[in-house]
């Protein structure tokens, strides 16, 4: 069966699976084409395998699911089983457990103390690790470097420092293999495959520890061991010296523990919370930075406009940087807060390449969506953020172009200062929408701005000719083949022309 030419054929017994398998190598773009061809809504059926999802990228449905009828669309038990590595942490939780975790995490993450810790950590890590790493790559001459890997290492170190209070040093020169970081990558890859493999099959593979599930089992052991060691160390710190001066989230959670006799339950809570926060913070921000620089290599006009915007801030700092000997400039988050074009360019990047390309929801009670689709209790919904950012009906005819200007209101030529245009979250869903909106959005912008501004100002980045950049199949929008680039110091190229 097929109702439109862009829709995959539905076969007896196996449903849409042959179409999915044939297009899995370019899954996100294929799914976007299908959704565009069927008015943004599609029911994917896996025939007798039992797989069935209602897939949507329709803003009116998104608004309904994430906000207006939020209580009817939790994450659901089945997804908690798929994402078992996250335990009962905030990403997996629903109802009262989710609400309590959210309140606690929000209290710790939005306070001024943690905010300034985030800003200081980000700047410090960029100055002490990212810039020296890129300087080393630039001095090496013609050898390409993988900027995607570098950004993931950077954000892993940054997030570990914020969450655990330890810097694993992933971005040290020589790029050491860090088993914990590798384990997180393996886990994410498996989580995607579990969405498209019948549950009975992947559960059997998991029990037998074969195939991809073998990797998952090993990853889980590595993650659990790392967290257990770190929690034990932080507890020991607390006993020995008190850790009230530490700003990282783990220390804050330990300080807020109500009953110190209940260490076992607390350890499970701390394990789940920290793994969730690490996943939330590391991969999302690292992936976004990678796509941002990929887009800049393809759009020199935007790159120049960003340099123009940075120039007045940088010129105040250049002398100090030259005096210090290195000649490289780093920026504080407070200096970048007013740069609207930088903010717009990051939003535009996340519109085209949302770090979380799809979201999942379950249906509690029968309901009718604004598109007219009847949902039954127990149904599963996938909301495709990647596709939503590329729909003409949502973003206009130029929706595939990288054009930060779409985020700006006001006309400089007419004397009005540019300011950011508000886009509702049910249309720009990259940070989720409604009560479950990303808790780290502000923190993510701080990290991205500090890293992006420093790299942009100090280095010219060029994509290695012929290198193919495309998304990887994962629940986070990583790059399948990395981002192979050559970097040069800006003072060796014509510096900041305008
Ligand atoms: C560019 C960077 C980021 C993007 C695009 C992003 C996006 C998202 C999205 C789409 C969700 C919803 C996920 C889901 O429910 O399945 C989410 C949730 C969340 N994010 Fe972020 N995020 C980013 C950075 C961060 C950072 C740095 C943190 C801090 C550690 C963070 C903390 C969280 C938390 C705690 C939630 C769960 C909220 C809840 O369920 O109530 N995020 N984020």
Your description of this structure?
- The protein has 498 residues and is of the alpha+beta class.
- It is 52% helix and 8% strand.
- The chain contains 18 helices and eleven strands.
- The longest helix has 36 residues.
- The protein is globular and about 70 Å long.
- The mean pLDDT is 89.
- Bound molecules: protoporphyrin IX containing FE.
- The site of protoporphyrin IX containing FE has 23 residues, from helix 5, helix 12 and helix 18.
Q: What is the radius of gyration computed over CA atoms, rounded to a whole number of angstroms? A: 23 Å
Number of helices: 18
Order of helices and strands: HHEEHHHHEHHHHHHHHHEEEEHHEEHEE
Q: Sheet with the most strands? A: 4 strands, mixed
Strand content: 5-15%
Structural class: alpha+beta
The ligands bound in this entry are: protoporphyrin IX containing FE
Percent range for helical residues?
Answer: 40-55%
Average pLDDT number? 89
Q: Roughly how many Å apart are the termini?
A: 58 Å
Give the overall silhouette.
Answer: globular
Find the count of extended strands (DSSP E, 2+ residues). Answer: 11
Query: Which blocks of ≥5 consecutive residues have pLDDT under 50?
Result: none
Spatial ordering of strands, largest sheet: 1-2-7-4
Structure, briefly:
By secondary structure, the protein is an alpha+beta fold.
What descriptors fit this protein?
498 residues, alpha+beta, binds protoporphyrin IX containing FE, four-stranded mixed beta sheet, globular, single chain, 11 strands
